[in-house]
Design brief:
The chain is mainly alpha-helical. It contains 23 helices and no strands. The chain has two domains: 4-334, no CATH class; 359-571, Phosphate transport system protein phou homolog 2, domain 2 (Methane Monooxygenase Hydroxylase, Chain G, domain 1). Helix 1 (4-45) packs parallel to helix 17 (359-381). 44% of the residues are buried.
Length: 572
């Protein structure tokens, strides 16, 4: 009979062991994401409508970064931004379910079912921890991330050993009482599916839930069929995060999240149809018996459950992949197509509402969002010529409204990206990550200033029009040439933003010097014209204001390229 003190100690040991396991899982996952996360994100962004490529990519990415949640969040974000088709998103989500089985195999093969005890049981994790030292103290960030992954794996195995030791052996009466829950046929299976989903939501990681299921089964707490039901419930519990993230995305993002839910629910329903033959088949192949306390079960339960976990995810993916068009139609019905916002409405494209687990993936999101910010600014700049040669007053006002809308968008984009980067930089990040955040903050500050300056040019054009100030052909030609130089500077800046590894600062400085030189030339000509009375003060004031604003644009543009170069050097 357990005393109150015994129960408290057991709970403390279980909580501590679970804490070690969850920390190890987080450490290993973050190490993998730092090592390969940005590449994995790039792979996902290139997904096509081909189901096989989507499934394989989803499985590979999830296996590589050890987080189906991170994969799903990225997929929902891409789909919501229109960068991935709905059918492609469904395929990736299917593949992500297969990728999650890797963790179960690690636990089953190395964390449970072994016969080693005492110091011998810690030999493998200690060896891994020793190996990790060769990478952790490397000067290269990639090697440090690899070292973090290895030591995370070592702690994962230690955590599993601690969990196994912390879980008590129940008395026969207690086991019998729990086993009565398994004697209600289909209702028992449904009950354990619900329990599995709830526990996964609470633990917020399917890997931890997998460990719990394996331990409960290997210790004889639950019968084998109920362990399989918990695994099925685990798949349902993992869909919650995607639903939360999708709440702030567009229609396609919401549909991608619903597709995740539909796929997992459909997979569970399919498995329920063949649950008994599947369960009996695995028991027959692995030699598992109905006796809960059988020593043979303790050895073979972890492997048998992992085999089911893999077969369940692979089989449901293979079957349901044939029905991707039907799944798409279902989620389109679930999330009706409301009037989509046009290109001139504000919407973050790459930054997800839920922070991803590593600074590197978050910085990659911010980097992609900054490129989108640049596209907005460049498009805003292309509206200016229409202010000089409008068809009529209505056309002029329409262009002014468009520029005003874009100016508001740039303000909001700067605010949202700044808030996101501040959250990233406010976490436990390395020195080089902190410096990259600072560089990116400088980039978006200057991009927003470019948007403000374009708006000021538009306002100057509007004031000129209202005051009936007209330039001659020579002044218009001068401003057109200045505008062309600034366009070249913007194009160079945009190219640098797209490829931090090949920043062309020489080209950026060359165009900046051309802009400054041409501004000096125009200013000299302007002063001479005023002295000679070539044009009056109102024309001269509007003219000088415009070429000064164009030169001011050049200053902000070169600041962006310099900040890009700083970010690149901090990431080396």
């Amino acid at each position: 009979m357990l005393t109150f003190t015994d129960i408290v100690l057991i709970l403390i040991n279980l909580a501590g062991a679970m804490a070690v396991f969850l920390f190890a899982m987080k450490l290993m996952s973050e190490g993998l994401q730092k090592y390969a996360g940005s590449r994995m994100r790039h792979v996902l962004s290139k997904i096509t409508d081909k189901p096989l490529s989507g499934i394989l990519s989803g499985a590979a990415v999830t296996a590589a970064i050890q987080s189906s949640t991170a994969t799903t969040v990225m997929v929902v974000g891409f789909a919501g931004a229109g960068l991935m088709s709905l059918s492609g998103a469904v395929a990736v989500v299917m593949g992500a379910n297969i990728g999650t089985t890797i963790t179960a195999w690690i636990i089953a093969l190395f964390g449970l079912g072994g016969h080693a005890e005492g110091a011998v049981a810690f030999s493998l994790p200690m060896l891994l921890a020793t190996i990790s030292l060769f990478f952790i103290f490397s000067k290269k960030n990639k090697m440090q991330s690899l070292g973090q992954t290895i030591i995370g794996l070592a702690l994962l195995l230690i955590g599993m050993e601690l969990l196994e030791q912390a879980i008590p052996m129940l008395s026969e009466d207690t086991v019998h009482a729990i086993s009565t829950w398994s004697h209600w046929g289909l209702w028992s299976v449904l009950l354990f599916i619900i329990i599995g989903a709830i526990l996964t939501i609470i633990l917020q990681t399917s890997a931890a839930m997998t460990a719990v299921v394996l331990l409960m089964a290997s210790q004889g707490w639950i019968e084998f069929p109920m362990a399989l039901a918990l695994v099925m419930g685990q798949n349902l519990g993992t869909t919650l995060t995607a639903q939360v993230v999708a709440m702030t995305t567009g229609t396609t993002g919401k549909r991608a999240a619903r597709a995740h839910l539909v796929f997992n629910v459909a997979g569970v329903l399919l498995c329920l149809l063949l649950f008994t033959p599947i369960c009996n088949g695995i028991m027959a192949v692995t030699g598992i018996t109905d006796e809960l306390t059988s020593p043979l079960n303790k050895e073979r339960y972890p492997l048998a459950i992992t085999v089911f976990h893999t077969l369940f995810n692979v089989a449901t993916t293979v079957v349901l992949a044939l029905f991707i068009p039907q799944i798409v139609r279902i989620v389109e019905w679930m999330v009706p197509d409301k009037s989509e916002k046009g290109e001139e409405e504000f919407r973050l494209t790459y930054i997800e509402p839920a922070m991803l687990s590593t600074a590197e993936l978050n910085l990659q999101s911010a980097k992609d969002e900054i490129v989108e910010f640049s596209k907005r600014v460049l498009r805003m700049y292309t509206f200016l010529p229409a202010l000089r040669t409008p068809k009529d007053e209505e056309d002029f006002e329409a262009t002014m409204q468009r520029i005003t809308k874009y100016e508001n968008i740039t303000d909001r984009m700067e605010l949202e990206i700044t808030k996101f980067l501040t959250r990233v930089g406010g976490g436990d990040v390395s020195q080089h990550t902190s410096e990259r955040v600072s560089s990116m903050l400088r980039i978006i500050d200057n991009l927003e200033s470019i948007g403000d300056t374009i708006f000021q040019i538009a306002i100057t054009r509007k004031n000129k029009r209202e005051a009936a100030v007209h330039f001659d052909a020579g002044l218009n030609a001068n401003l057109d040439h200045m505008s062309e130089l600034v366009q070249k500077a913007l194009d160079t800046m945009d190219a640098n933003l797209k490829d931090y590894d090949h920043v062309n600062l020489d080209a950026a400085y060359d165009i900046e010097h051309q802009i400054n030189a041409y501004r000096d030339r125009l200013r000299t000509q302007h002063f001479d014209a005023l002295k000679l009375g070539v044009y009056d003060y109102s024309i001269g004031n509007a003219y000088s204001s415009l070429y000064a604003l164009y030169e001011k644009l050049g200053d902000y543009i070169i600041n962006v390229s310099e900040a890009i170069d700083g970010s690149r050097r901090h990431s080396d």
